[in-house]
Amino acid sequence: MNQPNSQHIRNGVSRLRRLALLSAVCILILNAWMAFRITSVLDHGSATMINISGSQRTYSQRIRSDAFEIETAVRYGQWDKLEPLYEDLKQTTEHFSVAHQQLFTHRSPGELFGDATIHEADLVASIQVPAQQMISGSKELQKLTDNAIRRAPYIDELTINRILAVKDEITQAHSAYMPRMETIVDLFEQASRDEISASVRHARLAMVVLLVLLTATILFIIEPTILIIRRQLRDLDRATRHARRADAVRWRLLTNMGHEFRTPMNAVMGFAELLREDNLSAAERARLGQSIYESSKQLTHMIETMLDISAIESGQLRIVPTRCDLHRLLEGVKKNAQSFADEKELDLGFVIDESCPRYINTDTKRLGQILEKLTDNAVKFTESGRIDFSARFIAQPAPGVL
Question: For site-directed labelling of 156, which of 4, 64, 278, 394 has its Cα 20 to 30 A away?
């Protein structure tokens, strides 16, 4: 498997991994928003306001009831009932006042419900008057009751009539307050129902978005990731097959090289054995020594070829340009080819054109290997006839470089 393709696949998987992480974050945020939206509706102020406004109705009724009982106790001389009624009226009035402030602290009564009808808006806006009348009447009744407790049983008729008048004021204020508070409770309940309906719609929309996001994640992230992994596995399998074929080719090459080694090795051993003869002349010994040298040179060349193949496979082969005597190199290639051509009785023509420069800048060893391999193959695969070699200068890719 080549490196660029592998790097491209890794980059693709990395991008999809980041997209998957981003999608997971979006899903978590969407779920958190849905949960917050639902819980915020359940805990929203409308529900609290409904409870407070419901309590206001109860407090107003207790204030009116306490006013009736205080008036009755004073009229009939039930002095022992005044003190508990006084305490209950005082606490109830405080609760009523605090709850009223909670309802209308941040907004005026007319601003609480924007979608209310004109009649409902008028009722809500006018609730302040009866509420303040009830609070002020209750406080006035508390003073009168406290005075009655201290002066009992000697209470004058004026105080009794004043208590009766305050009780009537509280009753009238309560009568005006209750329908307005009923309207407010109904409007709060309607607002709460609207908020719940809106939350349900938003939750459904969020569910649709969530489903779309999950579907997009499956189609555009998970599925491509699976395809990339499958492609990588296929590339890995292809690379494994290529490696096996390369091993097979390498084994066949080593086998062939082993056979090629035998020829020069046998020649060296044979000529060395002949040199042991005592009756050889000096000329014969020189010829045998030259043959041993040529065979050893051929053997060395084959060993260097194997080393070069190993360097190529490991990526360690380096091209080192140096100053090269081109004519001398070509003469050496010609001499080597001529010796093989003579063995096969082939005619060899070797022409070095005048356009070839004397010196060039190249890797002398590698260029010699290339030329020798070309001439060796030409001689090796020519059974009879003539072989012509020519060397001429055509173009120069860069100044001073072959």
Answer: 64
